[in-house]
Amino acid sequence: MHKPMAPEDWREANRAMWDERVPIHIGSDYYDLDSFRREPDSLRGFEVEEVGDVTGRTLLHLQCHIGLDTLSWALRGARQVVGLDFSEPAVEAARDLAASLGLGPDRASFVAADVYDAAEAVPDSAYDIVYTGVGALCWLPDIVRWAETAASLVAPGGFLYLAEFHPMTDALDDETGGRIAYDYFSRQPWVDESPGTYADLDAATVSNRSVEWQHTLGDVVSALAAAGLRVDFLHEHDITLFQRFGSLERRDGYFRLPADRPRVPLMYSLRASRPPEA
């Protein structure tokens, strides 16, 4: 596996970018926190089905942002959830949201730390479920280190669950999603300086430098296997959560390619487990 390349300021630039966008996200229609407080469930249907019943289990959510998915798992019955994010404002927002839902620290707690430092930062050494939600891995340069860290936090008999945008989408042209336009195997960091945010494209922002990476499906699966987890399944999905390509149509709550077009994978999900101790 190739050694990742990263600008020296990647972490500081990304943290500043996310810190500035937290208040925008809190007030946005995209996250719609008023509706979430009334019906607190932000999870996708395939995630709920694939993770299964979380009643009585502990769950660690890596790169949790403002905690909607974390709290959704708590309210689906998880005994205790812990969310981790490197943005202090995001963690504070998550704590406030948990309190507004009547979830105390014994049920839902949040930690401000870099994901690579998670093993030292979270309150327990292992969890029944380690969960990573959509749009997280692209912010990390070293997928091997991520896999080693995440795997170390899976309890015997537990599993890691990951739902992500499919790396194939990074190779397709932005307008149609119908032709190969970029290198699928590129390890070059992608540096962007666009203002605004996906939750409000017209928002006035100052900290606009961000650094992302693409990770092939093979690299993600291989990293988890090398970290000692057994891949239980890898599912590819023909849906996505936003208008990734101009040609996508919104149907049944998701964005899809037109019905008369050949389909390509737009998202994927996987579960990788740690065998019970003998």
What portion of the residues fall into strands of 2 or more residues?
15-25%
- The largest beta-sheet arranges its strands as 3-2-1-4-5-11-8
According to DSSP, the number of beta strands is 11
What is the helix tally? 8
| Uncertain spans | none
Structural class: alpha/beta
H-E string: HHHEHEHEHEHEEEHEEEE
Q: What is the fold-level CATH name, i.e. the topology?
A: Rossmann fold
Helix content: 25-40%
Mass-distribution shape: globular
Largest sheet: 7 strands, mixed
Indicate the mean pLDDT: 96
Which class in CATH terms? Answer: Alpha Beta
End-to-end C-alpha gap? 32 Å
Look at the structure and name the CATH superfamily: Vaccinia Virus protein VP39
Whole-number count of domains:
1
Radius of gyration: 18 Å
Just name the CATH architecture. Answer: 3-Layer(aba) Sandwich
Domain Methyltransferase: 60-158
GO molecular function: methyltransferase activity
Protein name: Methyltransferase type 12
Pfam families: Methyltransf_25
Fold topology:
Elements: H1 10-26, H2 33-38, H3 45-51, E1 58-62, H4 68-75, E2 80-85, H5 88-100, E3 108-112, H6 118-121, E4 127-132, H7 143-152, E5 154-165, E6 190-192, E7 210-212, H8 217-226, E8 230-237, E9 249-251, E10 254-256, E11 267-273
